[in-house]
Amino acid sequence: PGHGQVEQDEYLSRHVALRMLYLVGGRHELALQVIPEIDPAEQEFWQHLFWGLANYFDTESLPASDERAAEAAAQLTDAVLNLQRLAALEIRFAALCDRIDGYGLYETRSSAEGTPGEAVLLFAELANVASVEEENGYHRASHANLIEILSQGGETDQVLAIELPVTEDRCRRQRRDYFASYAFELPPGLNPGRDVLRLTGAGQRGQRRARYAGGFLRG
């Protein structure tokens, strides 16, 4: 594959193109061959991807279209889960809430007004949270977050910064829907007008970061 990124990308592109030709030619066993010398998570992604495509068109072994769809969906889901290990951490949505019950189960604040010292809840949907499979079969994921309130949306005029402890999650299966909730108090000195709440997340080993600036507060 070479040492430079361009060489590695070209190496992978040629292997993927070859396996696509095998797939088109009905030589599925060759399409599922391991691509040598690439990241194991990336290898799993490509194998599950081609396996899913092969299943979708395998009318001989799976004559029923709904069974083919189910088999393909299972493989493509595994492909996505492996690709997430390589993807950048994302905070896709965040909101101040009055109540949080679970993923997608929350009540946003009925008013944007906030008073100093008031306890508030922050809900955040995270994507591409990497997990590590432990010896006991559980999948462990962890991330750390920083909550900031910035006056008037500025980058330097910081009103509040709360560095949250590392959050760990263990699950028997790798999670597909991941969320986090935080409780904190609004600080004194909220300016009249709009103050921006910014949430910054860091994945395991701190190698992946994401930022979400959204929730507006009124002083």
First-last Cα distance:
57 Å
What pattern of helices and strands is seen along the backbone?
Answer: HHHHEEEEEEEEEE
Strand portion:
35-45%
Helix content: 25-40%
| Overall 3D form | elongated
Structure description:
The chain is α+β, with helices and mostly antiparallel strands and 219 residues long. It is built from 4 helices and 10 strands; from the N terminus they run H-H-H-H-E-E-E-E-E-E-E-E-E-E. The strands form 2 sheets. Strands 4, 5, 6, 7, 9 and 10 form a 6-stranded antiparallel sheet that branches. It has a 4-stranded antiparallel sheet with strand order 2-1-3-8, with no helix packed on it. The longest helix has 20 residues, at 5-24. It starts with a helix and ends with a strand. The model has no long low-confidence stretch (mean pLDDT 82).
State the main characteristics.
4 helices, elongated, six-stranded antiparallel β-sheet, alpha+beta, 219 residues, single chain, 37% strand
Task: Give the SSE map.
Blueprint: H1 5-24, H2 28-31, H3 40-56, H4 65-84, E1 90-102, E2 105-108, E3 119-127, E4 131-133, E5 139-151, E6 158-163, E7 167-171, E8 178-185, E9 194-202, E10 209-218
Antiparallel strand pairs: 1-2, 1-3, 3-8, 4-5, 5-6, 5-7, 5-9, 9-10
Helix pairs in contact: 1-3, 3-4
Can you summarize this structure?
The protein contains 4 helices and 10 strands; from the N terminus they run ααααββββββββββ. Helices cover 28% and strands 37% of the residues.
